[in-house]
Design a protein that fits this description.
Layout (H helix, E strand, L loop, with lengths): L2 E4 L10 E4 L10 E9 L2 H8 L17 E9 L11 E5 L8 E4 L4 E3 L6 H4 L2 H15 L6 E4 L5 H12 L3 E6 L4 H6 L3 E4 L4 H8 L6 E4 L5 H7 L7 E3 L3 H7 L12 H12 L7 E6 L3 H8 L7 E5 L3 H5 L5
Length: 317
């Protein structure tokens, strides 16, 4: 029987189980995807822990994971956009960490040649989140843009998208990631106490836009730098949104296969780098979320859902 990640009560990573489930039946108008890789996202921790139970309640036993890459295994009656055997990427809320996902064709995009399975699994989640944030503050040629946590999963893509628009990008990060950001053409600034002063020194002519991917007071810092609220976007500071009226655009605002296609092409062409910090087998899903909760990571952590022998038979990209 196929396997899937499930949890039957709110709690820590220990509530996560990998269980046998029936192989899904594919209804008309839907596609069955055999999942290769599923991404891990910080928001999933809050859902599992019950932090968001009042707005996104779980239905136990609950699935987990959202963005993934895989191969079309079956197509339902009436589906013409996809064929068996095609590599795809998509978004399946609370369902992606399973060996099979039933997908709406409108929530799938084709995976281009040259795009790795692990990188493809991040496109519809953090890739779309980064895209939406950049669109919200519309960086222009020659402007100075700050990206917080610019080495993280969302931040590293955000910084590169802003740079592709011709902006001068300043990225905040921990000491261990400063050289890495510099290698991407991002001006690195160490975060922590004294950040405002370091940003003022790095941008003596001012900051035009601020993209916060971490929270922890970054919206307050953006305001202190004189950035107007309509040119600030945060995906991690609800208080900042309420206090200043800044943008909070994220995955939902870029929930479009057309956008995923464009992002996938940029990554496949090497114009955007998606660093994969670590890949875990599905049996280690609890360990993966324990590591993710530390928030100290360069790029993305992912879950290898497809069994190693099956994965070995796939094309590398």
């Amino acid at each position: 029987m196929p396997r899937a990640v499930r949890f039957e009560q709110y709690g820590g990573p220990e509530v996560l189980q990998v269980v046998n489930v029936p192989r899904p039946v594919v209804p008309a108008g839907r596609v069955l995807v055999e999942v290769v890789t599923a991404a891990l996202n910080p928001g999933e921790i809050g859902i599992r822990a019950g932090v968001f139970a009042s707005i996104w309640p779980a239905t136990f036993p609950e699935g987990q994971g959202n963005d993934y890459s895989g191969v079309v295994a079956e197509v339902g009656q009436g589906v013409t956009e996809f064929q068996v055997g095609q590599p795809v990427l998509g978004f399946a809320p609370r369902a992606a960490q399973a060996e099979f996902v039933v997908a709406d064709p409108a929530a799938l995009a084709h995976k281009p040649a040259g795009l790795g399975w692990d990188e493809a699994a991040t496109i519809a989640g953090v890739g779309a989140t980064a895209w939406a944030g950049v669109e919200a503050v519309f960086p222009r040629e020659g402007e100075t843009v700050v990206v917080s946590a610019a080495a993280g999963g969302v931040g590293v893509i955000t910084a590169q998208l802003a740079a592709l628009r011709g902006a001068r990008v300043i990225g905040t990060a921990g000491e261990g990631n400063l050289d890495y950001l510099a290698s991407l053409g991002v001006i690195p600034v160490r975060y922590g106490p004294g950040l405002l002063e370091r940003l003022l020194a790095a941008a003596p002519d001012g900051v035009d836009a601020y993209l916060d991917t971490f929270g922890a007071g970054n919206v307050d810092i953006a305001i202190a730098l004189g950035v107007p609220p309509y040119r600030i976007n945060t995906v991690a500071d609800g208080n900042g949104v309420r206090k200043y009226g800044v943008h909070s655009d994220a995955q939902e605002q870029a929930d479009s296969p057309q956008i995923w296609d464009e992002l996938a092409r940029l990554v496949a062409a090497g114009r955007i780098v998606v660093p994969i910090a670590q890949a875990y087998p599905m049996d280690r899903v609890a360990d993966a979320y324990r590591d993710l909760a530390t928030r100290h990571v360069r790029g993305k952590r992912v879950l290898h859902v497809m069994a190693p022998d099956r994965r070995a038979g796939l094309p590398a990209v």
